[in-house]
C-alpha cells in the first residue's frame, strides 16, 4: 500500500519479496528513559526478528566500560532488515 501511514514508532521500513514489511523501531524500558536500549527489526509476514543493543563494551588497557551507541545498533538492524526483506516470501498478515 504505497502512501499508507507507518505505524507509530517505526523509524525505517523495508518491503519484503512477499509483500510484507520489515519494520525497525527503538525499544524502551523503565530503566533507560528517555534513551532507547535497542533497535528492533521485525517482519510483519513471519516471526523473524532481530534486536540490536545500543550499548557496546569499550575495552581499555586496565578497565572496560559500557557506552551508548545507538547509531551502531541502527546500522546493524538496517543490514539485517534489508537482508531479510530480500529473501522473505511470507505474505502480510491480514488486518481484520
Structure characterization notes:
Helix content is 19%, strand content 35%. It is elongated. The protein has one domain. A hairpin with a 5-residue loop joins strand 1 (10-15) and strand 2 (21-27). With 96 residues, it is α+β, with helices and mostly antiparallel strands. It contains one helix and six strands. The chain has one helix at 70-87; strands at 10-15, 21-27, 38-43, 49-53, 55-59, 64-68.
Q: Which sequence of SSEs, written as H and E, runs from N to C?
A: EEEEEEH
Helix content: 10-25%
Largest sheet: 4 strands, antiparallel
Low-confidence segments, given as residue ranges, are none
Strands of the biggest beta sheet: in what spatial order? Answer: 1-2-3-4
Which structural class should the secondary elements be placed in? alpha+beta
- What is the end-to-end distance? 16 Å
The backbone outline, from C-alpha atoms, is elongated
What's the rounded overall pLDDT mean?
90
Bin the strand percentage.
Answer: 35-45%
The total count of strands amounts to 6
How many separate structural domains?
A: 1
Number of helices: 1
Indicate the radius of gyration in whole angstroms: 16 Å
Amino acid at each position: 500500500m504505497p502512501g499508507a501511514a507507518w505505524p507509530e514508532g517505526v523509524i525505517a521500513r523495508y518491503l519484503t519479496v512477499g509483500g510484507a514489511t520489515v519494520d525497525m523501531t527503538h525499544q524502551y524500558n523503565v530503566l533507560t528513559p528517555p534513551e532507547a536500549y535497542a533497535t528492533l527489526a521485525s517482519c510483519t509476514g513471519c516471526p523473524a526478528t532481530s534486536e540490536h543493543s545500543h550499548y557496546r563494551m569499550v575495552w581499555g588497557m586496565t578497565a572496560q566500560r559500557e557506552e551508548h551507541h545507538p547509531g551502531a545498533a541502527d546500522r546493524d538492524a538496517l543490514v539485517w532488515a534489508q537482508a531479510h526483506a530480500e529473501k522473505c516470501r511470507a505474505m502480510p498478515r491480514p488486518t481484520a
